[in-house]
Amino acid sequence: MAKGDQIKITNKKIKSNSSKKWLRRQLADPFVEKAKMAGFRSRAIFKLEDMQEKFKLIGKNSSVLDLGCAP
Q1: 3-state secondary structure the chain
Q2: Are 22 and 28 in contact (CB under 8 A)?
Q3: CA 7 to chain CA mean position, Å
């Protein structure tokens, strides 16, 4: 989607402007679409992969505990 393109939100259940703005950002985000195509539930996978490549935070036999996984 080109910069400046507008996405019209017509769902009557979405009443608040902040919800409409969030939905527009989600629909315009290429990482959301990429995650969807790859079968991931969130685009956060790309951030986690980037951090792992840069900082090697998770070792081969590491245990990971996800706290606060929902917004």
Answers
A1: CCCCCCCCCCCCCCCCHHHHHHHHHHHHCHHHHHHHHHCCCCCHHHHHHHHHHHHCCCCCCCCCCCCCCCC
A2: no
A3: 18
Amino acid identity of residue 13, one-letter, is K
64: CB partners within 8 A, 6+ apart: 58
Query: What is the C-alpha radius of gyration for the chain, rounded to an integer number of angstroms?
Result: 16
Tell the residue number behind the tokens 């245990």, with chain if given.
Answer: 63
| Residue carrying structure tokens 């935070």 | 57
Place of tokens 């989607």: 1
What was the pLDDT predicted at 9?
Answer: 66
pLDDT in tens, 1-52: 555 566 666 766 777 888 888 888 988 999 999 999 999 988 999 999 999 9
